[in-house]
Backbone:
């Protein structure tokens, strides 16, 4: 990204005075970052310019883009906020100040011990920044996205640390802002660095599976196309493929790729809500819907404002396909989230809201109000319950470590055996005990976020039927079931079927 490329991008979106101000900011930042280099060896200015380009792509207002160009000047050069305010005005200096505060909160905590408090404090600061102006977070997301895209130049331990923070803090933040596309980008990159082997395995699994189902899916797509055309409906249809990370998470819950029906979903975009429901009814007329898989996020949007109709149907040939039906506005909002509100002019947005095409005006999102109130309370020196926000942001996942520092993501309520089965089922089968953070813990210990788990093994140990009580993930449950069946079979051979009597009596 060069000065000219960035200005060319900007000219398509902003008026002349705005582009001139942007040019001024570029020259100012270039001069002040002079001589600084990135880990890649490139000139430092490349980074803020790329961040600014990302912000233009997201459809942000010009102040945010200019703040993106300037975002590292106060932190990394001798530029002062006063200087920025006098050159670029209050609005931009306020944004740069917010971004700088977030960075300082991070580096201030960096060497103070374990990872967790750092993240928590960090997050608190981030949240307060959101409360003041959500554009600060959007700049931080663009900053983080570019840093993740260039992570290969960092040493491995830093790569893991940054990737982990991204998946724990920034991806959930993007999700809360309903910036679906950014969330997926951040998750995929983090996942790749945190668990390269699992990432590749999942990717291979995904591709082989997609190949298998592609032809059948094309047939469904043609059928639906013909039928919707016959009904004279105006629509656009495309396929959306699940991200590698979300497949990985789902596999962990479901255990078996054959039970995942939304590997590819067919997405139908229409002009208005009544057509969306019409399309739904046509699909249900063509195929039989699986009733527990119909989701009306139009009438009942998700907390981050996401809206869409989801249904999963079965074709006469037994093919199971998920459909997502939504209006163009809903689609735009699902991909760009809060950033879309800067892209749309206000009238268009209010109009869409009035017509019910979107669930809420972005500023109306309840959780933002909540954050703002919390930030205001924190500002008054009253207690700020970051733990509470942490819970809602990280949904129901915990992150645990192997003794080597690899990170595994498990559902809340998981046990040490779930972790062991995640690593390898042979390892789990020989488990004789667990050291959690260096202390021996029982099999029914509930794993906590940040735990380091060591699996103690014994060559003669065997999986036991009562382990069924202390596994929570479908993957572990399935592997255990297979192992017990195998053990049972072996035992039956040896003892002539006594084991089946034993199992019968136990019931
Ligand atoms: Mn930066």
Residues:
């Amino acid at each position: 990204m060069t000065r000219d490329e960035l200005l060319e991008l900007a000219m398509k979106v902003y008026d002349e005075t705005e582009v001139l101000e942007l040019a001024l900011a570029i020259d100012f930042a270039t001069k002040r970052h002079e001589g600084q280099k990135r880990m890649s060896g490139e000139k430092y200015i490349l980074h803020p310019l790329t961040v600014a380009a990302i912000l233009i792509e997201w459809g942000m207002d010009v102040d945010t883009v200019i703040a993106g160009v300037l975002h590292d000047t106060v932190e990394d050069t001798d530029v002062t906020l006063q200087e920025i305010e006098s050159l670029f005005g209050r609005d931009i200096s306020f944004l740069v100040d917010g971004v700088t505060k977030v960075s300082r909160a991070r580096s201030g905590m960096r060497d103070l011990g374990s990872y967790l408090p750092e993240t928590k404090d960090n997050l608190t600061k981030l949240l307060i920044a959101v409360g003041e102006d959500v554009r600060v977070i959007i700049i931080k997301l663009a900053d983080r996205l570019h840093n993740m895209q260039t992570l290969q130049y960092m040493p491995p331990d830093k790569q893991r640390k940054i990737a982990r923070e991204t998946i724990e803090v920034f991806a959930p933040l993007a999700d809360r802002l309903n910036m679906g596309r950014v969330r997926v980008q951040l998750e995929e990159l983090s996942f790749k660095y945190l668990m390269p082997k699992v990432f590749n395995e999942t990717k291979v699994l995904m591709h082989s599976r997609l190949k298998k189902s592609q032809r059948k899916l094309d047939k469904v797509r043609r059928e639906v196309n013909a039928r919707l055309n016959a009904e004279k409906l105006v629509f656009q249809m495309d396929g959306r493929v699940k991200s590698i990370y979300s497949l990985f998470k789902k596999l962990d819950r479901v255990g078996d790729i054959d039970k995942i029906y939304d590997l590819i979903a067919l997405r139908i975009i229409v002009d208005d809500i009544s057509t969306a429901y019409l399309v739904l009814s046509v699909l249900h007329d063509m195929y039989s819907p699986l009733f527990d898989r119909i989701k009306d996020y139009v009438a009942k949007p998700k907390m981050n404002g996401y809206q869409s109709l989801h249904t999963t149907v079965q074709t006469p040939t037994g093919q199971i396909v998920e459909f997502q039906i939504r209006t163009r506005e809903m689609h735009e909002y699902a991909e760009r989230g809060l950033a879309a509100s800067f892209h749309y002019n206000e009238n268009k947005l209010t109009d869409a809201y009035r017509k019910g095409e979107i669930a809420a005006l972005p500023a109306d999102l309840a959780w933002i109000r909540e954050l703002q109130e919390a930030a205001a309370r924190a500002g008054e020196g009253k207690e700020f319950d970051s733990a509470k926000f942490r819970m809602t942001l990280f949904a129901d996942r915990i992150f645990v470590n192997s003794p080597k520092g690899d990170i595994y993501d498990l559902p809340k309520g998981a046990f040490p055996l779930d972790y062991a089965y995640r690593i390898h089922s042979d390892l789990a089968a020989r488990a004789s005990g667990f050291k959690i953070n260096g202390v021996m813990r029982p099999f029914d210990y509930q794993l906590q976020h940040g735990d380091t788990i060591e699996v103690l093994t014994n060559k003669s140990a065997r999986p036991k039927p009562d382990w069924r009580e202390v596994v929570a993930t479908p993957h572990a449950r399935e592997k255990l079931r297979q192992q017990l069946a195998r053990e049972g079979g072996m035992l039956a051979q040896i003892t002539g079927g006594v084991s089946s009597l034993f199992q019968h009596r136990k019931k």
